[in-house]
TrEMBL record:
Keywords carried by this UniProt record: DNA-binding, Endonuclease, Hydrolase, Nuclease, Restriction system
Source superkingdom: Bacteria
Family matches, as InterPro entries: Restrct_endonuc_typeI_TRD_sf (IPR044946), Type-I_RS_S_subunit (IPR052021)
GO molecular function annotations of the record: endonuclease activity
Entries under PANTHER family matching the protein: TYPE I RESTRICTION ENZYME HINDI SPECIFICITY SUBUNIT, TYPE-1 RESTRICTION ENZYME ECOKI SPECIFICITY PROTEIN
Protein name per the record: Restriction endonuclease subunit S
Origin species: Plastorhodobacter daqingensis
Length: 201
């Protein structure tokens, strides 16, 4: 299924220069820098900017998906339930609003982040210094979209796999710290006694 058949696609807001933080009020803004390497967006870390009366299409809510159209990582992220108010998506972010009768937001982001879609973007990428993905490459992106029940299972299994990965990293880091402590203790026992230590015996 072509991506436009599964969701609507809108460009993010085009900022006329640097967006400064609002001294009071304003709207939440999601910029490229606000998306972590693993694709998460933390609402509490977003900046408010002094912009008013902007078209609704620039704002994202829980259930929407944002796509990074510029940079080395051209992946999608879901706007989850932690967002308690609409947030402004700023270019080069694109807004994908899923047709919920066709595709789950979590599955849509997952499918876009998989190797087949990423290879599609690799072929379409432009720019030498800064990698850019043209809007047309999203229009002709073909995704495998099964029934909703199958999507739910895939999303659940992927979430469990991510938890397993995080736990494996935590276990490895804990093991490394314990080993460092053991080695440091052993090194301390084996070091030659200082003159002060020898004379105090």
């Amino acid at each position: 299924m072509l991506l436009p058949d599964a969701c609507t696609i809108h460009s993010g807001y085009t900022a006329r220069g640097r967006l400064e933080a609002a001294e009071g009020g304003g709207v939440l803004a999601i910029q490229l820098r606000d998306i972590s390497a693993d694709g998460f967006i933390h609402p509490e870390r977003l900046t408010r900017v002094p912009l008013d009366d902007l078209p609704d299409r620039y704002f994202v809510r829980p259930g929407d998906v944002v796509f990074r159209s510029r940079g080395e990582r051209n992946t999608a992220s879901v706007i989850d339930k932690r967002f308690r108010e609409p947030a402004l998506a700023v270019l080069p972010l694109l807004v994908l609003r899923p047709n919920i009768d066709v595709v789950l937001p979590e599955y849509l982001a997952w499918a876009i982040n998989q190797p087949p879609a990423q290879r599609h973007f690799d072929l379409a990428a432009r720019g030498t210094n800064i990698r850019m993905i043209p809007r047309s490459s999203l229009d002709d992106l073909d995704l495998e979209i099964p029934d909703i029940g199958t999507q739910e299972k895939i999303v659940a299994i992927d979430a469990l796999a991510e938890q397993e990965r995080a736990l494996a990293i935590l276990v490895a880091e804990t093991r490394r710290k314990m080993l460092s402590m053991i080695l440091a203790e052993r090194a301390n026992r084996l070091r030659p006694a200082t003159r002060q230590e020898r004379t105090s015996k």
